[in-house]
Design a protein that fits this description.
Number of strands of chain B: 11
Number of strands of chain A: 11
Helix content of chain B: under 10%
Mean pLDDT of chain A: 95
Number of helices of chain B: 0
Low-confidence stretches of chain B: none
Largest interface: A-B, 19 and 17 residues
Helix content of chain A: under 10%
Mean pLDDT of chain B: 92
Number of helices of chain A: 0
Strand content of chain B: over 45%
Oligomer: heterodimer
Structural class of chain B: mainly beta
Radius of gyration of chain A: 13 Å
Distance between the termini of chain A: 40 Å
Largest sheet of chain A: 6 strands, mixed
Largest sheet of chain B: 7 strands, mixed
């Protein structure tokens, strides 16, 4: 079966750094997405990785290791507005997105 | 670019009635549209995938006669919840993509409450 695992909830302090991990087992792989979702709103795109390595975009970076079935989202200089759920999703062999359950990130002052 | 709208943003209906939700791609032609449902504190659950001009492909456990999906044009898909019941109350989100791009662009969602 297809499976994506990410922690249910994480807490971090404003100004700090947090890493949200995602491991996956899917039928085929055509890339991995990270989305941010604030409560009551639709997801917004953060990053897409299809090759191994680190992609940096401002305060957010995303890493992928295809051989390990592993990715992480790194958030630096945390701000209160970063409190949200972060969704990991894998594009499988049929180009369907398989979604993780999401990680709720709580930022404390 | 790549803006997707949904209408209405929220709707309250009585049990037994039907409600239609529209999803529009405003600045691109959406060859594929997706409908998701999300219950509180849970992740997105894909309900169905629709390609323009074709019948929708429903995920296992989703009743196609209850959730009618129409994707009649490259910019519009509709989801009709027929004979709605309180357990259908949820946040319904559509997304769209065009051929060759695998990123999905999400609409703002529709909150449905069935009383």
């Amino acid at each position: 079966g297809q499976n994506i695992d990410q922690p249910t909830e994480m807490t971090a302090t404003e100004g700090a750094i947090v890493q949200i991990n995602c491991t996956y087992q899917t039928s085929g792989f055509n890339g991995l997405f990270w989305y941010q979702q604030h409560a009551g709103e639709a997801p917004t795109f953060l990053s897409y990785n299809v090759l191994d390595g680190l992609e940096e975009k401002g305060r957010f970076s995303s890493f992928l290791s295809r051989s390990k079935g592993y990715s992480y989202l790194l958030l630096k200089e945390l701000q209160m507005k970063d409190s949200a759920s972060y969704l990991c999703a894998v594009l499988d062999s049929n180009y369907q997105l398989i979604w993780g359950a999401g990680t709720k990130l709580i930022i404390k002052p | 670019g790549a803006v997707v709208s949904q209408h209405p943003s929220w709707v309250i209906c009585k049990s037994g009635t039907s409600v239609k939700i529209e999803c529009r791609s405003l600045d691109f032609q959406a060859t594929t549209m997706f409908w998701y449902r999300q219950f509180p504190k849970q992740s997105l659950m894909l309900m169905a995938t629709s390609n323009e001009g074709s019948k929708a492909t429903y995920e296992q456990g989703v009743e196609k006669d209850k959730f009618l999906i129409n994707h009649a044009s490259l910019t519009l898909s509709t989801l009709t919840v027929t004979s709605a019941h309180p357990e259908d109350s949820s946040f319904y989100i559509c997304s769209a993509r065009w051929t060759g791009d695998y990123e999905q662009y999400f609409g703002p969602g529709t909150r449905l409450t069935v009383t």
